[in-house]
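User: C-alpha coordinates in, sequence out, please.
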Protein backbone atom coordinates (compact mmCIF):
# COMPACT_ATOMS: atom_id res chain seq x y z
CA UNK A 1 0.00 0.00 0.00
CA UNK A 2 1.33 3.42 -0.96
CA UNK A 3 1.79 6.15 1.63
CA UNK A 4 -0.56 8.39 -0.34
CA UNK A 5 -3.30 5.81 0.09
CA UNK A 6 -2.75 5.76 3.83
CA UNK A 7 -3.09 9.55 3.93
CA UNK A 8 -6.61 9.27 2.58
CA UNK A 9 -7.35 6.40 4.96
CA UNK A 10 -6.19 8.52 7.92
CA UNK A 11 -8.15 11.54 6.71
CA UNK A 12 -11.37 9.54 6.54
CA UNK A 13 -10.81 8.15 10.04
CA UNK A 14 -10.15 11.63 11.41
CA UNK A 15 -13.31 12.97 9.78
CA UNK A 16 -15.16 10.13 11.52
CA UNK A 17 -13.88 11.39 14.88
CA UNK A 18 -11.26 8.72 15.59
CA UNK A 19 -8.44 9.89 17.88
CA UNK A 20 -4.94 10.43 16.46
CA UNK A 21 -3.52 7.65 18.60
CA UNK A 22 -6.11 5.16 17.36
CA UNK A 23 -5.69 6.35 13.76
CA UNK A 24 -2.00 5.43 13.87
CA UNK A 25 -2.89 2.04 15.35
CA UNK A 26 -5.49 1.36 12.67
CA UNK A 27 -3.26 2.63 9.86
CA UNK A 28 -0.55 0.14 10.78
CA UNK A 29 -3.04 -2.71 11.10
CA UNK A 30 -4.80 -1.82 7.87
CA UNK A 31 -1.51 -1.52 5.99
CA UNK A 32 -0.66 -5.09 6.95
CA UNK A 33 -4.11 -6.48 6.18
CA UNK A 34 -5.54 -7.90 2.97
CA UNK A 35 -9.06 -6.55 3.38
CA UNK A 36 -10.92 -3.56 1.96
CA UNK A 37 -11.39 -0.42 4.01
CA UNK A 38 -15.09 -1.19 4.17
CA UNK A 39 -14.39 -4.59 5.70
CA UNK A 40 -11.75 -3.24 8.05
CA UNK A 41 -13.90 -0.33 9.20
CA UNK A 42 -16.89 -2.54 9.86
CA UNK A 43 -14.88 -5.00 11.96
CA UNK A 44 -12.34 -2.76 13.66
CA UNK A 45 -13.27 0.93 13.65
CA UNK A 46 -16.94 1.77 13.36
CA UNK A 47 -17.79 1.26 17.04
CA UNK A 48 -15.18 3.88 17.98
CA UNK A 49 -17.17 6.61 16.24
CA UNK A 50 -18.85 9.01 18.65
CA UNK A 51 -22.19 9.32 16.90
CA UNK A 52 -24.47 7.30 14.64
CA UNK A 53 -23.96 9.79 11.83
CA UNK A 54 -20.16 9.49 12.04
CA UNK A 55 -20.53 5.72 11.85
CA UNK A 56 -22.50 6.18 8.65
CA UNK A 57 -19.93 8.67 7.34
CA UNK A 58 -17.11 6.20 7.95
CA UNK A 59 -18.88 3.40 6.10
CA UNK A 60 -19.84 5.68 3.20
CA UNK A 61 -16.30 6.99 2.88
CA UNK A 62 -14.86 3.47 3.16
CA UNK A 63 -16.66 2.49 -0.04
CA UNK A 64 -15.19 5.55 -1.77
CA UNK A 65 -11.70 4.64 -0.56
CA UNK A 66 -12.08 1.17 -2.05
CA UNK A 67 -12.58 2.72 -5.50
CA UNK A 68 -8.96 3.32 -6.68
CA UNK A 69 -10.03 5.98 -9.21
CA UNK A 70 -11.89 8.07 -6.63
CA UNK A 71 -9.16 7.60 -4.04
CA UNK A 72 -6.52 8.89 -6.46
CA UNK A 73 -8.62 11.94 -7.34
CA UNK A 74 -9.24 12.73 -3.67
CA UNK A 75 -5.56 12.44 -2.83
CA UNK A 76 -4.58 14.74 -5.70
CA UNK A 77 -7.14 17.38 -4.70
CA UNK A 78 -6.22 17.25 -1.00
CA UNK A 79 -2.52 17.71 -1.82
CA UNK A 80 -3.34 20.99 -3.59
CA UNK A 81 -5.06 22.33 -0.48
CA UNK A 82 -8.02 24.69 -0.28
CA UNK A 83 -7.85 27.16 -3.21
CA UNK A 84 -6.79 30.58 -1.87
CA UNK A 85 -9.67 32.26 -3.71
CA UNK A 86 -12.27 30.36 -1.64
CA UNK A 87 -13.79 32.79 0.86
CA UNK A 88 -15.89 30.39 2.93
CA UNK A 89 -18.12 27.33 3.31
CA UNK A 90 -21.92 27.42 3.03
CA UNK A 91 -22.80 23.97 4.36
CA UNK A 92 -21.79 23.09 7.93
CA UNK A 93 -23.56 21.07 10.64
CA UNK A 94 -22.85 21.55 14.34
CA UNK A 95 -24.00 19.77 17.48
CA UNK A 96 -27.19 21.80 17.32
CA UNK A 97 -28.36 19.07 14.92
CA UNK A 98 -26.32 16.01 13.83
CA UNK A 99 -22.86 17.58 13.73
CA UNK A 100 -20.30 16.38 16.25
CA UNK A 101 -18.72 19.61 17.47
CA UNK A 102 -19.79 22.99 18.81
CA UNK A 103 -19.99 25.97 16.47
CA UNK A 104 -16.94 27.61 18.08
CA UNK A 105 -14.72 24.79 16.78
CA UNK A 106 -15.84 25.40 13.21
CA UNK A 107 -15.32 29.13 13.58
CA UNK A 108 -11.78 28.60 14.86
CA UNK A 109 -10.91 26.30 11.96
CA UNK A 110 -12.44 28.71 9.43
CA UNK A 111 -10.29 31.50 10.90
CA UNK A 112 -7.21 29.29 10.47
CA UNK A 113 -8.13 28.81 6.81
CA UNK A 114 -8.30 32.57 6.38
CA UNK A 115 -11.97 32.41 5.42
CA UNK A 116 -14.11 35.53 5.35
CA UNK A 117 -17.25 33.65 6.44
CA UNK A 118 -18.79 30.36 7.39
CA UNK A 119 -22.42 29.33 7.41
CA UNK A 120 -24.07 27.40 10.22
CA UNK A 121 -26.69 25.41 8.34
CA UNK A 122 -27.99 22.74 10.67
CA UNK A 123 -30.73 20.34 9.65
CA UNK A 124 -34.36 21.00 10.41
CA UNK A 125 -35.74 17.46 9.75
CA UNK A 126 -38.70 18.16 12.03
CA UNK A 127 -40.58 14.97 12.96
CA UNK A 128 -38.37 12.88 10.66
CA UNK A 129 -36.12 11.14 13.15
CA UNK A 130 -34.17 11.59 16.34
CA UNK A 131 -32.08 14.48 14.99
CA UNK A 132 -33.96 17.68 14.38
CA UNK A 133 -33.99 21.40 15.06
CA UNK A 134 -37.47 22.84 15.28
CA UNK A 135 -38.14 26.54 14.72
CA UNK A 136 -37.91 27.34 18.42
CA UNK A 137 -34.44 25.81 18.64
CA UNK A 138 -33.46 27.57 15.41
CA UNK A 139 -34.37 30.97 16.86
CA UNK A 140 -32.26 30.18 19.93
CA UNK A 141 -29.35 29.27 17.68
CA UNK A 142 -29.65 32.60 15.88
CA UNK A 143 -29.36 34.42 19.21
CA UNK A 144 -26.33 32.28 20.04
CA UNK A 145 -24.70 33.20 16.72
CA UNK A 146 -25.26 36.90 17.44
CA UNK A 147 -23.35 36.54 20.71
CA UNK A 148 -20.55 34.52 19.13
CA UNK A 149 -20.25 37.03 16.30
CA UNK A 150 -19.13 39.70 18.77
CA UNK A 151 -15.89 37.79 19.36
CA UNK A 152 -14.73 37.08 15.81
CA UNK A 153 -14.12 39.07 12.63
CA UNK A 154 -15.26 36.00 10.68
CA UNK A 155 -18.79 36.48 9.36
CA UNK A 156 -21.06 33.74 10.68
CA UNK A 157 -24.04 33.41 8.39
CA UNK A 158 -27.25 32.30 10.04
CA UNK A 159 -28.71 29.61 7.84
CA UNK A 160 -30.51 26.28 7.94
CA UNK A 161 -30.73 23.23 5.71
CA UNK A 162 -34.50 23.16 5.49
CA UNK A 163 -36.35 19.99 4.63
CA UNK A 164 -39.38 19.74 2.38
CA UNK A 165 -42.39 17.68 3.46
CA UNK A 166 -44.47 15.30 1.35
CA UNK A 167 -47.14 17.95 0.81
CA UNK A 168 -44.57 20.50 -0.39
CA UNK A 169 -44.48 22.57 2.79
CA UNK A 170 -41.18 23.38 4.48
CA UNK A 171 -40.30 22.54 8.07
CA UNK A 172 -40.45 26.22 9.12
CA UNK A 173 -42.95 28.88 8.09
CA UNK A 174 -41.78 31.64 5.76
CA UNK A 175 -41.74 34.30 8.50
CA UNK A 176 -39.17 32.24 10.42
CA UNK A 177 -37.01 31.48 7.39
CA UNK A 178 -36.90 35.14 6.43
CA UNK A 179 -34.96 35.81 9.64
CA UNK A 180 -32.02 33.78 8.29
CA UNK A 181 -29.27 35.31 6.16
CA UNK A 182 -30.09 32.69 3.54
CA UNK A 183 -31.59 29.20 3.38
CA UNK A 184 -30.39 25.91 1.93
CA UNK A 185 -33.16 23.64 0.70
CA UNK A 186 -32.76 19.88 0.39
CA UNK A 187 -34.74 16.84 -0.65
CA UNK A 188 -33.89 14.14 1.89
CA UNK A 189 -36.94 11.90 1.40
CA UNK A 190 -39.07 10.69 -1.49
CA UNK A 191 -41.65 9.39 1.00
CA UNK A 192 -41.52 5.95 -0.66
CA UNK A 193 -42.93 7.40 -3.88
CA UNK A 194 -39.82 7.33 -6.01
CA UNK A 195 -37.90 9.71 -8.22
CA UNK A 196 -40.96 11.46 -9.63
CA UNK A 197 -41.96 12.58 -6.13
CA UNK A 198 -38.41 13.63 -5.26
CA UNK A 199 -38.22 15.68 -8.46
CA UNK A 200 -41.57 17.30 -7.70
CA UNK A 201 -40.25 18.35 -4.28
CA UNK A 202 -37.03 19.63 -5.84
CA UNK A 203 -39.08 21.94 -8.04
CA UNK A 204 -40.98 23.15 -4.99
CA UNK A 205 -37.67 24.16 -3.38
CA UNK A 206 -36.39 25.84 -6.54
CA UNK A 207 -39.54 27.95 -6.76
CA UNK A 208 -39.61 28.87 -3.06
CA UNK A 209 -38.61 32.53 -2.70
CA UNK A 210 -36.68 32.13 0.60
CA UNK A 211 -34.51 29.20 -0.50
CA UNK A 212 -31.22 30.34 -2.09
CA UNK A 213 -29.05 27.19 -2.34
CA UNK A 214 -30.24 23.74 -3.38
CA UNK A 215 -28.10 21.30 -1.41
CA UNK A 216 -26.97 18.05 -3.10
CA UNK A 217 -29.63 18.47 -5.84
CA UNK A 218 -29.44 14.90 -7.19
CA UNK A 219 -30.35 13.32 -3.86
CA UNK A 220 -33.19 10.76 -4.24
CA UNK A 221 -33.46 11.72 -7.94
CA UNK A 222 -30.35 10.39 -9.63
CA UNK A 223 -28.52 11.50 -12.72
CA UNK A 224 -30.61 9.77 -15.39
CA UNK A 225 -33.93 11.19 -14.21
CA UNK A 226 -32.38 14.61 -13.58
CA UNK A 227 -30.88 14.67 -17.08
CA UNK A 228 -34.20 13.72 -18.66
CA UNK A 229 -35.60 16.96 -17.15
CA UNK A 230 -32.43 19.02 -17.49
CA UNK A 231 -33.87 21.85 -19.60
CA UNK A 232 -36.76 22.31 -17.18
CA UNK A 233 -34.32 22.45 -14.25
CA UNK A 234 -32.05 24.99 -15.94
CA UNK A 235 -34.99 27.23 -16.78
CA UNK A 236 -36.43 27.06 -13.25
CA UNK A 237 -33.07 27.62 -11.57
CA UNK A 238 -32.29 30.68 -13.65
CA UNK A 239 -35.80 32.16 -13.38
CA UNK A 240 -35.77 31.77 -9.61
CA UNK A 241 -32.13 32.85 -9.06
CA UNK A 242 -31.16 29.63 -7.34
CA UNK A 243 -27.68 28.35 -6.60
CA UNK A 244 -26.94 24.64 -7.07
CA UNK A 245 -24.52 23.07 -4.63
CA UNK A 246 -21.53 21.08 -5.84
CA UNK A 247 -21.23 18.72 -2.91
CA UNK A 248 -17.72 17.97 -1.66
CA UNK A 249 -18.75 14.85 0.24
CA UNK A 250 -16.56 12.04 -1.19
CA UNK A 251 -19.39 9.65 -1.95
CA UNK A 252 -21.10 12.41 -3.95
CA UNK A 253 -18.11 13.07 -6.22
CA UNK A 254 -19.77 11.33 -9.17
CA UNK A 255 -22.96 13.35 -8.61
CA UNK A 256 -20.91 16.54 -8.61
CA UNK A 257 -19.11 15.36 -11.77
CA UNK A 258 -22.54 14.99 -13.37
CA UNK A 259 -23.68 18.48 -12.38
CA UNK A 260 -20.53 20.15 -13.67
CA UNK A 261 -20.53 18.18 -16.91
CA UNK A 262 -24.16 18.93 -17.71
CA UNK A 263 -24.54 22.48 -16.36
CA UNK A 264 -21.24 24.26 -16.98
CA UNK A 265 -21.56 27.13 -19.40
CA UNK A 266 -25.35 27.26 -18.97
CA UNK A 267 -25.46 30.41 -16.84
CA UNK A 268 -26.25 28.41 -13.69
CA UNK A 269 -24.85 29.61 -10.36
CA UNK A 270 -23.00 27.19 -8.06
CA UNK A 271 -21.66 26.90 -4.54
CA UNK A 272 -19.16 24.48 -3.04
CA UNK A 273 -20.32 22.90 0.22
CA UNK A 274 -18.39 20.53 2.47
CA UNK A 275 -21.57 19.35 4.24
CA UNK A 276 -19.34 19.03 7.29
CA UNK A 277 -20.49 17.05 10.30
CA UNK A 278 -17.06 17.24 11.96
CA UNK A 279 -14.43 19.97 12.02
CA UNK A 280 -11.89 17.90 10.08
CA UNK A 281 -14.40 17.54 7.27
CA UNK A 282 -14.05 21.26 6.54
CA UNK A 283 -10.76 20.36 4.85
CA UNK A 284 -12.74 18.64 2.10
CA UNK A 285 -13.17 22.11 0.60
CA UNK A 286 -9.93 21.10 -1.14
CA UNK A 287 -12.01 18.74 -3.30
CA UNK A 288 -13.24 21.86 -5.10
CA UNK A 289 -9.96 21.49 -7.02
CA UNK A 290 -11.64 18.66 -8.96
CA UNK A 291 -13.96 21.09 -10.77
CA UNK A 292 -12.66 24.59 -10.27
CA UNK A 293 -10.92 24.79 -13.64
CA UNK A 294 -14.03 23.63 -15.49
CA UNK A 295 -16.24 26.43 -14.20
CA UNK A 296 -16.38 30.18 -14.57
CA UNK A 297 -15.33 31.46 -11.16
CA UNK A 298 -17.79 34.34 -11.57
CA UNK A 299 -20.54 31.71 -11.21
CA UNK A 300 -19.28 30.28 -7.89
CA UNK A 301 -20.59 31.80 -4.65
CA UNK A 302 -17.53 30.85 -2.57
CA UNK A 303 -15.37 33.26 -4.59
CA UNK A 304 -17.36 36.30 -3.41
CA UNK A 305 -16.62 38.27 -0.27
CA UNK A 306 -20.29 39.38 -0.30
CA UNK A 307 -22.13 36.19 -1.33
CA UNK A 308 -25.56 37.52 -0.32
CA UNK A 309 -25.32 39.95 -3.22
CA UNK A 310 -24.30 37.07 -5.51
CA UNK A 311 -27.40 35.09 -4.50
CA UNK A 312 -29.65 37.94 -5.67
CA UNK A 313 -27.72 38.68 -8.85
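Assistant: Sequence out:
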Amino acid sequence: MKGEDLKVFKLFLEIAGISKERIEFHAKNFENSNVTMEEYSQKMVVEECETLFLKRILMRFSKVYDDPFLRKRIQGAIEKGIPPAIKGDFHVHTNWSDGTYELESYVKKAEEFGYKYISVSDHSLVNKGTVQMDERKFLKQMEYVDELQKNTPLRIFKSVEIDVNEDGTLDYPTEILEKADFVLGAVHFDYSKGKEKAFELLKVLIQNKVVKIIAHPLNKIGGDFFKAHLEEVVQLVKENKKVLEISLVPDRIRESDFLVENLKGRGVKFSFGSDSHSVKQLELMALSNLWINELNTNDIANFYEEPLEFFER
